[in-house]
Amino acid sequence: MKKSNRLTVYIIISMLAGVILGYFIHTQSSPAFIQSFSTNIKLLTTIFLRLVQMIIAPLVFSTLVVGIAKLGDLKTVGRVGGKAMLWFITASLVSLLLGMLLVNFFKPGEAMHLPLPDSHISTGIQKTALSLRDFVGHVFPKSIVEAMANNEILQIVIFSLFFGVGTAAIGEK
To answer: Which residue of 45, 61, 66, 77 has the smallest Cβ count within 10 Å?
Structure first.
């Protein structure tokens, strides 16, 4: 069996084992054990999510810098970046339109008859106006180390663009 096929088989076996374990825990255990088990199993999800978040910033940085540096000249970078933006905007508009159409057609949650909260009740979310100064201050990082530590992906992308263009301008040795 090929290595990629083995991985698929392991994933399917793990999924089935998870379903069986979940069924067993929720049908054959006391409510106190279920509560204790669910609290403890959340540690695994926290660890997994933190590991994924840990790898995102270096992955984005290295991918963008190497990609831009390999393209070479600024015209090619601009052309590829323009096409990527066009695809991104088009995909976003199509997905938003599809979501709006499906929500208006299927009307999810309508049969639940949940009462709407009063409009004057506080949600605890602070409302602040976003100025151009705040926006620019957030887009451009003070420090790449701070941006990576806080997982500020937009700031990492901006720094990576400048760093990649600078690397491409050095040329080959």
So the answer is: 45
Q: Residue 148 in contact with residue 57, Cβ under 8 Å?
A: yes
The C-alpha atoms of residue 21 and residue 10 are separated, in whole angstroms, by 16
Whole-number Cα distances in Å, 173 to 62, 64, 170 = 20, 21, 8
- Torsion, Cα of 141, 143, 144, 150 (10° steps): -80
CB-based contact 163:154 (threshold 8 Å): no
Q: Please, what are the averages of pLDDT over each run of 10 residues along the chain (173 residues)?
A: 80 95 88 88 92 93 90 82 89 96 93 84 79 87 91 91 87 71
d(Cα 25, Cα 34) in Å, to the nearest integer?
Answer: 7
Query: CA–CA separation, 91 vs 89, rounded Å?
Result: 6
- E strand or H helix that includes residue 35: helix 31-71
pTM of the entire structure? 0.65
Structure tokens at 114: 């949940």
CA 97, 99, 101, 104 dihedral sign is negative
